[in-house]
TrEMBL record:
Catalyzes the NADPH-dependent reduction of N-acetyl-5-glutamyl phosphate to yield N-acetyl-L-glutamate 5-semialdehyde. It is an enzyme of class 1 (oxidoreductase). This is N-acetyl-gamma-glutamyl-phosphate reductase. Keywords: Amino-acid biosynthesis, Arginine biosynthesis, Cytoplasm, NADP, Oxidoreductase. Gene3D superfamilies: Dihydrodipicolinate Reductase, domain 2 (3.30.360.10), NAD(P)-binding Rossmann-like Domain (3.40.50.720). It comes from Sphingomonas guangdongensis. The gene is argC. PROSITE patterns: ARGC.
Length: 309
């Protein structure tokens, strides 16, 4: 059956990416507002209530406003913003999180798209917590680097302006980034992870790293034990893959331009040191790719339709 999809925020970085992925799909009637009406609440209210599905690609406050404008029980929502990722009554839109998560998303009226950094972090950590390899009360830290499109239009303008600001910038040094609560909740951790993000002078791409002192973990797992647990968790997934290569290097562009996530467990067995590494595209599985995947699941389309794998 053909379904109508309204993208609210279709002129922004994430909205444009979703638009490109949905354009030309026969099963989808794509609705966007003309430029002079895209912020007009009356036009948005009408489009929001007419559509079978809406995808919100807006700042958090505007996303909350859009949800409040929906006054019918039929329209189903995918929110790409941070606004509802830890909210009650919203389904977390990460189909690979648990074997049952896809069915929950399929039946949900309100789905929150995961954040880009949490996507990498959760893909690495949730299966290890579930398997008891990482205790729920473990003190985890996570370092990450993102392409500058992660900061939306304003950061793109900053990095593409006449004066190049920097090659690499660490930020959120007060250790209170907006993604910490989302990471803690959906990894089922007792403590917030210590999270240090950074941005590099490349448009898109992401690396998320979680150091693990294997020798200090209660079960003293091996590198292979961690890798095998991840491989079992994503067995059969076309989107999340576990690499078994012995790479000595990793680059931020590894999965840029795709909707894939690649997971690695690297380390020094003699020292009992390991690092979990996820590479993805902040605009792919970190945003637009995940929104399209969630739409596919909710509408009953082929799960990976329109994705770049
Ligand atoms: N970029 C990324 O990698 C990721 C982004 N996200 C999330 O997706 C959402 C969109 O981010 P992103 O695309 O990067 O941001 P952008 O700033 O590139 O785009 C946001 C869009 O929303 C429009 N907008 C702002 N306020 C309103 C309003 N009241 N009514 C209608 N439109 C409005 C903006 O218009 P104008 O520019 O004219 O103000 C702009 O077109 C955010 O919540 C972000 O957190 C999620 C994952 C990754
Ligand atoms: C480089 C950069 O600034 N990144 C953004 C996160 C982008 C993102 O994906 O976060 P949401 O999904 O929550 O919008 C930041 O750290 O705020």
């Amino acid at each position: 059956m053909r379904r109508s999809v309204f993208i609210d925020g279709a002129a922004g970085t994430t909205g444009l990416e979703i638009r490109e992925r949905l354009a030309g799909r026969a099963e989808i009637e794509l609705v966007t507002l003309p430029d002079d009406r895209r912020k007009d609440p009356a036009a948005r209210r009408a489009a929001l209530n007419d559509a079978d599905f809406v995808v919100l690609c807006l700042p958090d406050d505007a996303a909350r406003e859009s949800v409040a404008l929906i006054d019918n029980p039929r329209t189903r929502v995918i929110d790409a913003s941070t606004a509802h990722r830890t909210a009650e009554r919203w389904c977390y839109g990460f189909p690979e999180l648990e074997p049952s998560q896809g069915a929950l998303i399929e039946g949900a009226a309100r789905v929150s798209n995961p954040g880009c950094y949490p996507t990498g972090f959760l893909a690495l950590v949730r299966p290890l917590v579930r398997a008891g390899i990482v205790p729920a009360d473990w003190a985890l830290s996570v370092h990450a680097v993102s392409g500058y499109s992660g900061g939306g239009r304003q950061m793109i303008e900053e990095f593409e302006g006449d004066t190049v600001p920097t090659a690499w910038r660490g930020y959120a040094l007060a250790l209170a980034h907006k993604h910490v609560a989302e990471m803690q909740r959906h990894a089922r951790l007792e403590h917030p992870p210590l999270f240090l993000p950074s941005v590099a002078r490349t448009y898109r791409g992401m690396v998320v790293e979680v150091p693990l002192p294997l020798h200090a973990l209660p079960r003293r797992p091996s590198i292979d034990t961690c890798r095998d647990a991840l491989a079992a968790a994503y067995d059969g997934s076309e989107i999340i893959r576990v690499a078994a290569d012995d790479r000595a290097t990793v680059e931020v562009e590894e999965d840029a331009g795709t909707d894939r996530v690649t997971l690695r467990v690297v380390g020094n067995a003699a020292r009992g040191h390991a690092v979990l590494i996820a590479t993805l595209d902040n605009l792919g599985k970190g945003a637009a790719g995940a929104a399209v995947q969630n739409l596919n699941v909710m509408a009953g389309f082929a799960t990976t339709a329109g994705l770049v794998l």
